[in-house]
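Narrative of activities, Objective 1.

The group set out to show that a structural description can be obtained from nothing but a protein's sequence at a throughput compatible with the screening campaign. Below is one input-output pair from the validation batch, recorded exactly as produced.
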Amino acid sequence: MENLVIASDHAAYELKEVLKKKLLSQDYSVEDLGCHSKDSVHYPDIAKQLAEYVLKHKCRGVLLCGSGIGVSITANRYPGIYAALVTSVEMAEMSRRHNHSNVVIMGSRFISPELAEDILDKWLNTEPELGRHQERVAMIDA
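Output recorded for this entry:
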């Protein structure tokens, strides 16, 4: 059973709950860092918590906000975090296959819950490619 962490701001709270329910039904172990209601929170705080959790526990994360942009910028400030803002199943696949993303980000105002579930499925079930892609990811870290 893979361990995952999920977090959102208030704008994406409902989408977080949909995705968390799906993950739990598929027997993933899910740590929910919040938020836990539609009450306003600061997205940088949420993204920071998730990034630190992913690094500490060596797991993958699902991060959500209204647009996905703010949490993406924040999460990618952490060395070792490869957070990909995706809007399609194809982008989810490529973010894992070529960029070795360990955090998938979605914006709840721009995708449907059904598309978010499809994106998550593809992202979870795609393995990173090695070779030239591993070399390029190493270049990011250099």
